[in-house]
Design goal:
Elements lengths: L5 H18 L8 E2 L7 E2 L8 E3 L1 H7 L5 H4 L5 E5 L5 E5 L13 E5 L2 E2 L21 E6 L13 E6 L7 E9 L3 E13 L2 E12 L8 E14 L2 E15 L4 E2 L19 E15 L7 E16 L8 E19 L2 E20 L10 E22 L4 E18 L19 E2 L4 E19 L2 E12 L3 H5 L1 E2 L10 E13 L3 E18 L5 E19 L4 E14 L3 E2 L5 E2 L11 E11 L2 E10 L2 E2 L7 E2 L2 E11 L4 E8 L7 E7 L2 E6 L4 E10 L2
Parallel strand pairs: 6-9
Antiparallel strand pairs: 1-2, 3-8, 4-5, 6-7, 8-9, 10-11, 10-40, 11-12, 12-13, 13-14, 14-16, 15-39, 16-17, 17-18, 18-19, 19-20, 20-21, 21-23, 22-25, 23-24, 24-26, 26-27, 27-28, 28-29, 29-32, 30-31, 32-33, 33-36, 34-35, 36-37, 37-40, 38-39
Length: about 675
């Protein structure tokens, strides 16, 4: 990535040097992560990557949109759409259209927030990231412990666990009538024992016309001893009510101070809600070395939104109810540590699309789709860590996953109007006849870890990830396609990395090469096909440095080259040429923050960089990227009260959260203007 301003770069260098010098005197508090292995380990013991945001950083960022947190994680770009909408990129381009959603696995306390096959490209708004105690991200395919959708990356939001008494209350105000209140309350005796709950409510009128939102999120956890084991019960839920603004149009329209605040779709909306319940039990005397754990869960979500981006602006309604169980077995066989398990899941999902307006060419008034899909999944897996010598550990895993869809079309089959009459001209949609589809995937992984000394480890990892076709890609067809004969997408990843941890410096570096096959796209006939191939090369660097005088810094830097590995004419008249950059895939991105903390004060400046990227497969149009500054300051009035101020886009840059080119025109989601947020918080307890 380009060099930051000299002052910031020299400040980081000074902190790194100070940390390195002081580190010899004392060991670092070890950073514990859980997502990659499903039990607590240090980063130095992991033959792979995991980036982690802890409670203090999440509290300071207090992100109004998850993209603000994602900028602190190497290789990660969660683009902000309007309101709480988003598009995710983790070691990938910002994926849109067929093949986009379902390429990332979103977890809450290790549980997928949605059933396999029923993704939504915006599903980050169903996560309780505002109330998280930790956020962990695995870039690239995960191990055998995770299955479909853990293709390009895995994001796990970990909510606070029961523990000693806790009370946290905050209120915040910002521009465009932004208001947020937050509460976390805990009543317990010790870690893992007791009750804890939290809720957050926020509202914003929006910096664009008729583009406000209100949302509420909450969770509740209970932990207790039961029959010689630890019982944990959890609930979480979300509600979103949003008025949506679409793209603004015209080359560099995001730079127009008036146009960037307009909304050509004032009637657009999105209403969504989700609920999740989970329960787990694990015997007290066998945790990560020798024992087992059983987990059960129920989930529900539904959504209702106006597809303002389509001619005729039809309304889509979709939802899912799902449940399942996971059985985990931890054991040692000689020096080897083994984690084995089986995941099971069943889901019932539906989708309806109805156009209330009059016919618009090839989109007639009335219902376009109305179908129901039952999904069944079973996946056994095992992961083994085997010490080879004093410093060497070999790890390997294998996952077998079976997935079945039973699809029921509740309308007339084919390319017709709702009443079965012929579309003139032919409709753009097509409804396949009832059918069942089965997918089986086998995903191995292999890793080698070399522990150089107590502060450094190096690893080499070879991993396969996969993504089964989503229900909407199979059954929400267009034009004359009666059957979508799709394969599962796969990624093969080779990664070389370095972990370094001392008292003053944490560093994680990785270089990777990935090959993606069978990725799903629309061809020139607008058929969903799995003919795509791509290549991904990159380097990622994460640094956290802290000196004894209160200065600290953090760096998340990424360079990546992501290219097509096939040539084909696709929907919209675009031509993909092998070797071209994939659209919306910046070569460079990252952030650098530099701060000073000495009670009762804290101050931090952050530089966020987004590199340029092409908007089409032909590389004819591009967005030039942007650089913005953010400023944060906090004052601890006493042991309980704290005042925090945040200024986003301090330099008031006119930028685009996302740029695109389609139907012969540039289109953008404009980035927010300079924003000031003020927060007053009270904390009693840990």
């Amino acid at each position: 990535m380009p060099c930051p301003r000299p002052g910031l770069a020299s400040g980081l260098a000074a902190l790194v040097i100070a940390g390195t010098v002081s580190a010899a005197d004392r060991r670092s508090p070890e950073e514990i992560i859980v997502t990659a292995t499903r039990y607590p380990v240090t980063a130095l013991e992991l033959a792979g990557n995991t980036a982690r945001l802890d409670t203090a950083r999440i509290d300071l960022l207090n992100a109004s949109h998850i993209y603000e947190s994602a900028t602190q994680i190497p290789g990660t770009w969660i683009t902000r759409g309007n309101g709480q909408e988003s598009i995710t990129a983790i070691r990938s381009p910002a994926l849109t259209g067929p093949g986009s959603c379902g390429s990332f696995l979103f977890l809450e306390d290790g549980l997928a927030i949605r059933p396999t096959g029923f993704c939504n490209v915006n599903e980050t708004f169903e996560m309780l990231s505002e109330l998280a105690s930790t956020i962990e991200v695995i870039r690239g395919p995960a191990s055998a412990l995770y299955g479909s959708n853990a293709l390009h990356g895995t994001l796990n939001v970990l909510l606070p666990d029961p523990g000693p008494d806790l009370l946290y209350v905050s209120g915040e105000a910002g521009p465009d009538s932004f208001m947020r209140s937050k509460l976390i309350w805990g009543d317990g005796k010790s870690d893992g024992d007791g009750l804890i709950g939290g809720m957050v409510y926020d509202h914003e009128d929006g910096f664009r016309d008729s583009a406000g939102y209100s949302q509420a999120k909450s969770f509740l956890k209970y932990g207790t001893d039961l029959r010689g084991g630890q019982l944990e019960l959890g609930f979480s839920g979300t509600v979103l009510d949003q008025d949506t603004a679409g793209y603004i149009y015209g080359e560099n329209a995001y730079r127009d101070a008036t146009l960037r605040h307009t909304n050509t779709n004032p009637d657009a909306y999105r209403k969504a809600n989700s609920q999740r319940i989970q329960a787990s039990w694990q015997p007290d005397d066998n945790r990560a070395d020798d024992g087992w754990k059983v987990l059960g869960f129920l989930r529900r979500s539904e959504m209702d939104f106006l597809q303002h981006f389509l001619p005729g602006q039809p309304v889509e309604k979709n939802g899912q109810v799902s449940g399942g169980a996971t059985l985990l077995r931890f054991t040692r066989l000689g020096p080897a540590r083994i984690t084995a398990g089986i995941d099971t899941e069943i889901a019932d999902g539906y989708l309806k699309e109805t156009q209330g307006s009059a016919d618009t060419g090839n989109r007639p008034q009335g219902r376009h789709y109305d179908y129901d899909v039952w999904q069944y999944l079973a996946a056994p897996y095992a992961q083994v860590d085997l010490p080879l010598a004093a410093r060497w550990t070999l790890s390997g895993g294998l996952r077998f996953e079976w997935l079945r869809y039973d699809y029921d079309n509740r309308m007339v089959d084919g390319n017709t109007r709702e009443d079965g009459s012929t579309c003139t001209p032919p409709c753009l949609y097509n409804r396949p006849a009832d059918r069942s589809d089965n997918y089986t995937n086998l995903a191995p992984n292999l890793g080698l870890l070399f522990r150089l000394d107590p502060e450094n480890s190096f690893y080499l990892a070879l991993t396969r990830g996969f993504r089964a076709p989503q229900a909407a890609e199979l059954y929400r067809l267009q034009a004359g396609q009666n059957v979508a004969d799709l394969k599962s997408e796969t990624i093969d990843s080779l990664e070389l990395g370095w972990h370094h941890q001392t008292a003053h410096l944490n560093l994680s570096a990785a270089t990777f090469a990935m090959r993606k096959d069978h990725y799903i796209l629309q061809d020139s006939n607008r058929y969903n096909v799995s003919d795509g191939e791509s290549r991904h090369l990159g380097v990622e660097l994460g640094v956290e440095a802290r000196s004894d005088n209160g200065l600290y810094a953090g760096l998340a830097a990424t360079w990546a080259k992501q290219t097509y590995a096939f040539s084909q004419l696709i929907a919209g008249g675009e031509t993909i040429a092998s070797g071209n950059d994939i659209d919306t895939a910046p070569r460079t991105m990252g952030s650098l923050h530099l701060g000073w903390s000495a009670e009762p004060w804290l101050a931090e400046i952050e530089w966020v960089h987004q590199g340029r990227y092409f908007l089409t497969a032909q590389e004819d149009q591009r967005y030039d990227g942007h650089d913005i500054l953010n400023l944060r300051a906090a004052w601890s009035v006493n042991a309980n009260w704290r005042v925090t101020a945040r200024i986003n886009n301090l330099n008031d840059t006119l930028y685009a959260d996302r740029a695109d080119y389609a139907f012969g025109d540039y289109r953008y989601f404009p980035g927010h203007d300079r924003e000031l947020f003020l927060e007053l918080s009270y904390r009693r307890g840990p």
